[in-house]
Amino acid sequence: MPRPIWPKWVRDPLLVFLLVGAGIFGAHAWLGGDADDRVIVVPQSQIDRLGFLWETQMGRPPSPAELDALIDDHVREEVMVREAQRLRLDEDDAIIRRRLAQKLSFLTEDVATLEPPAADELLAYFEDNRGRYATPAVATFSHIYFSPDRREDPRGDASRTLEVLDADAWRKAGDPFMLGRTYAHANMSRIERDFGTGFVAALDGLAASPDWQGPVESAYGFHLLRVDAKSPALGADYESVASRVARDLDAARRAAANAAYFEELMRQYTVVVP
């Protein structure tokens, strides 16, 4: 077996990496660099911030040795960031791009919410979005399903089953159903999502009763229903949802501020799409 041409130390990946890095740094130094970016100043405000973050996490101020370690970590991070930027490692990085855009959005949102909303603004927002805070109508019911894929006359079979249905044996009647046979305190939006608009309209017209009723058509076929309880939708008064209104208005103001800021920025750019 022929002996390798290159010595073993030349083939060491770590050494190759160091040599490449040294070459890049040497090229940068030869081309000239700003001496100021080799000076790292850690102001007192940054030291105070490091101490505050430590105290927030640990529940006590850092000791002098711990504070020195925090400063050392900050300096190390600053050196690594500057060198990464010097090597342009931050360019064309999707994660960094998203993070920068997110930070700019946060800055815009913070500016938008510096002034707390007035009471009349909160009330106006509640009135404009009153439906969002209403308590939805709910129903508790059980159903027996009759599948058009398994039966030639599912509606007729449902009607005939209703005439002879034994209250204790209803779980064995009908056909298997992919969703539940019993719905407890389900709001109408969920019921509509599961069964369709026509089913909800029919359910709305049925009274709560221990007797089975139907047939009722859904998006899947036909059903017999036993409606155990129903509660109508109830409008909300402002006092009971004031905290939710404040949170929602805050989110709406942030979104509006971001949209307005982005629109203003777009006026300063020309977008060319080939």
Describe the protein's architecture and organization.
This protein has about 270 residues and is an alpha+beta fold. It is about 50% helix and about 10% strand. It has nine helices and four strands; from the N terminus they run αααααβαβααββα. It has helices spanning about 15-30, 45-60, 65-85, 95-110, 120-130, 155-165, 190-195, 195-205, 240-265, and strands at about 140-145, 180-185, 215, 220-230. A four-stranded antiparallel β-sheet has the order 2-1-4-3.
Question: How are the secondary structure elements laid out?
Answer:
Blueprint: H1 13-31, H2 44-58, H3 64-86, H4 94-112, H5 119-128, E1 138-146, H6 154-164, E2 182-187, H7 188-195, H8 197-204, E3 213-217, E4 222-231, H9 242-266
